[in-house]
Amino acid sequence: MVEDDIPETSHDFSVDVIVTTDEVITCAPPRRPSGLDWDDLSADQIAAMPVLQSLQNSRRRTP
């Protein structure tokens, strides 16, 4: 665990709780992405993950 800020991007999210042998630490506020940031994904990343290919195809069909 560190006290310093850690670089984040729009697709990162925070942990809710850290559990050690000595304590339970509640982390606030929780951060969750609102969805996929397609601009952050390369064609290779999309090609490597069939679920992303499917989602991308669905987006193209939506008027």
Plain-language structure description:
The protein has one domain (17-61). The protein is elongated. The chain has a two-stranded antiparallel sheet with strand order 1-2. The chain has helices spanning 43-48, 50-61; strands at 17-19, 24-26. The protein has 2 helices and 2 strands, in the order E-E-H-H. It is an alpha+beta fold and 63 residues long. It is 29% helix and 10% strand. The chain starts with 16 loop residues before the first strand and ends with a helix. The mean pLDDT is 86.
Sum this structure up briefly:
By secondary structure, this protein is α+β, with helices and mostly antiparallel strands.
List keywords for this structure.
63 residues; 2 helices; alpha+beta
Topology:
Elements (H helix, E strand, L loop, with lengths): L16 E3 L4 E3 L16 H6 L1 H12 L2
Antiparallel strand pairs: 1-2
The level of helicity is 25-40%
Structural classification:
alpha+beta
Q: How many helical elements?
A: 2
Major sheet characteristics:
2 strands, antiparallel
Order of helices and strands: EEHH
Report the uncertain regions: none
Amount of beta strand: 5-15%
What is the total tally of β strands?
A: 2
CA radius of gyration is 17 Å
Mean pLDDT: 86
In spatial order, strands of the major sheet run 1-2
Number of domains: 1
What overall form do the CA principal axes indicate? elongated
